[in-house]
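U., I forgot to send this yesterday:
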Amino acid sequence: MPPHMLERIARDADDPALRDRARRTLALTSAQFAERRTTAAGAPAPSEDFVPDRTIGDAGGREELPGRTVRAEGAPATGDKAADQAYDWLGATFDFFEAAYRRNSIDGAGLRMVSTVHYGDKYDNAFWDGKQMVYGDGDGVLFTGFTGPLDVTGHELTHGVTQYTANLEYRGQAGALNESVSDVFGSLVKQWQRGQTADRADWLIGQGLLASGVDGVALRSMKEPGTAYDDPRLGKDPQPAHMDHYVETQRDNGGVHINSGIPNHAFYLAATAIGGNAWERAGRVWYDTLTGGTLAADVDFAGFAAATAATAIRLYGADAAETKAVSKAWADVGIPVRANG
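Result:
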């Protein structure tokens, strides 16, 4: 959940309860982001035992983790929609990374996957805290339950993949790339689960999270950054799609949730130009770049663009359509790939 949405609610919502919940959510989310930044981890030895190990906890409306265990790996459905969705989406994300990239769980070595549902009092967010997934139920007025959209789980778990690989800093352009990579693979796991090619995908992040009556379709759009919502209670989606509109700000760790629209759009352009299943070629370029061990933790947009171009050359050749699509996509968002890329 981008902080600018919560800040708008905390400042302007007519309902005092919504304002109070937004302030509490901002405080909790800020604390969890600080915790996540201190939980960097190197990649452990890879494992070929591709079997998920899922545990679902129930916080029961409290702010305590991991909560009471309600479902373990292989156990039957609980009948609690949030708990069962969390279990299923952990499995879908695990299966996606295995099938697409032969990655064994978040750390590549079979990491146990833990989720806690019913966190806090109508908590308006979901997050990866460096060790596990956490979901709020939403306030029911502006946001629905955060276990609903698969891409939200895929997004947050990809923060874990980034943590164990490139470990991108969570500030400035590196932080926006951190957020963008999570959007990329959040969208790809949804496309993979639905069997959608790039031209059939919606390229929305968090579709279904906005409650009935809210003017919007999702939290973000990779296809058209800046168009996901426009509601008097939430404000207008502020994401730019081009460097001409890059937002210079000290808020949100230098605008990590806002400026991520630029690399998001670059991936969308590359994936749709290449065509087919986006996770197979465009996704492979981004995945190999993220996990290849060559990115600096403070890499900027230009450095990441050059790295993806170099990965495309290595995978497909300098004159390949895939390589040309990647370079053109970055140029089209105002980030020409450096000649040595």
